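Pasting as-is:
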Amino acid sequence: MRRALLSLMALLPALTLSQPSCWGRPQVPTLSDNKTFSLEAATTEYTIGPGDGLLITYFTVPELSGSRSVLPDGTLSLPLLGSIRAQGLTADQLTTKLTELYRPYLVRSNISVTIERPRPVTVTVSGEVNRPGPYTTQPIQAVVATGGVPSVVTNRINVSSAIAQAGGLTEASNVRNITLIRQMPDGQTARRRLNLWALIQDGDVSQNPVLQDGDALLVPRAEAVNLQEYGYIATSNLSPETIDVQVVGEVIKPGTIKLKGNAPMTVALQAAGGLSNLADPTRVELLRINRDGTVYRKVIDAKVEQAADNEKNPPLRDQDMLIVRRSFGGELITGINTGLGPLTQIANIFVLFRALR
């Protein structure tokens, strides 16, 4: 009896509030109630902001645990503490802060904070991209549960995926001098230079950091256009996965077709059903509207067996147009058919009249 009493007294400090509690008497935990969780999974550089949904777990006082939303002013409303500021902190930093703030109230303040419902991330991409502007992405959540306690890891947008969302880089982009602009929690503006060529060529993943809500990317214009280098970039994930190309003229199925990014011209012609019998394969015209409003025009000899080449079989960009002209023989046949059209109609009427007699 004395040994059981001593064991019970040893458990009391972990269950006692230093001030009277209004939540009732907590239950004594058993061995099966001691949940474990992955600290590595809970660790993230994601900074908390308005709209985030947090799961705050009080291991010694489970009655306090639950989901909390960060208010528009960046604060949280919590029991005993009232309103505290959470904006700009990571989940780990907020965990440390709450542990200290609850120390006067809890004999043992064992607290965990995880991102349960991350807010949408909005970044702005400007400069030499095909579709500059702000882009909003909903983070993908991977819930890891160890012993029943969830931890949330958020896979957020990085530099390469943001550029791909903005339609990819233009031919005039300077990939070696991209600027990442970030507003820091103290109100200061920080800038970081990124070299995406080092990412593509050398696999330097430090040049492809995860972006935070409110970040901005500025892609400057290169002093000289390097088409060979751009052709290599266009095959990377810095370009969109699919593009829309218009094919008009003498093809079997003219119209807008969807292709893989950086697909060569011959692939677009094949996707349009191939050339018609009246087409002139030596007069396929590529039209491209540049960012500055100028029009790039090139006449190409379309050979199906031609490999991808910047001059003879160029890779296409989003919103390009291919015009397949009619051959001289095709124009001649069309002209003859046009001229004989009225005579054919008269002959058909004469045949019909004789049949009715």
